[in-house]
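Priority: low. Protein: YhgE/Pip-like protein. Input follows.
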Amino acid sequence: MALFKQKAVWIGLLAVFIVLAVFGVAMMGSVLGAKPKDLPVALVVQDQAVSLPNGKSLNVGAMAQEKLLANKELPIAWHLVSTEAEAKQGLDQEEYYGAFVLPADLSSGVASLMSDNPKPATVRILANEGMSVQASTAVKQILGQIALGISSELSKQVLHMVSQNSDVKVIPVGMAGALLAPFQVQEQTVHPIGTNNASGNAPGMLTQIMWIGSLVVSLILMFASQKALASGGRRFGVLLTQAVTGLVFVVLASGFLVWMSKTWYGMSLVDASGTWIALMLGGAAFFLLQSALLSWIGMPAMPILVLLMFFSLPVVNIAPEFLPQTTHDWLYEWTPFRFVAGELRHSMYFADASISSSSNITVLWYIAAASLVVKLVSSFRKVKVRTVEVSHTETA
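Result:
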């Protein structure tokens, strides 16, 4: 019973609940309940209207477009584009998670179902896997269901028209089979993630490893700098040397990480050199940010840096359209992790098709430059120097 009289026991119990609550919010609260909304998808309608034997006009593409744009329950934000080539360009530039292409011969293919020689058209579904496996998979499933719904509705309409045609007494086998599938559906994955990429989570994983590596460098150089200052080094010079040395370490560490990923684990990289540059710049921004906080606050900065990592990691591998609005606005928008992961995703999956918009790179340069300035400014602050008074007593 004496143990329970100790305040440390109850303080420790309270600390456990606080830690569980904080890390529970970090690891689960920001992502649980995530669901897609407003996923950008390109809609290509090239279909040309055709005249039916009864004198009416058939324009499947226009009908499908009208219904899709009017359906507000779909978690998709449609972007109308003129051609499939234009849609593919948007996929290359990481603007769309997928594309739904209604070809020019869609209506004529449906009309041919009422003949002895049906020629169904092919509707194409493109999924942009490199942009987000999670989002592209959702888009592929949604577009597949849309195509199935359109197909079912067309089958009913064509069957109704055939039944009203008095010239048709018996439906030929070929026509009957075609009525079950008024058009073909072809799925294609663009910018595949390749092999050994952690189901598309490799950019976030490499970002996490780089953050931890940069933090180790920051701590080692902080302790080394403290010893250099204690031995009489000038604070500005020590901090500047610390920054330069840390950047050299980051360059070497990022190169080793890319080499290790490819040679040890067989990770597929479209642009290995671009991945190294992205990791190098991200590591530099991480190191300077961490080092600036440590220069001003010291070891109390560690909980801030650790919590930043745990709060950021769950969101960098999730498409932003899946995140709760609060998480998106208050965490995803500003965490440095997402800029590094975003640039890595471009280098690893898109570098062969498009030039980076460089927005991620620009932000990382700003973070690195601002952190370096803040770090060096800390050399001009007043530092309390502990003095030890020694009393001399005379001995008789």
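The beta strands are 39-45, 50-51, 57-58, 76-81, 98-102, 121-128, 183-190. The chain has two domains: 39-190, 198-380.
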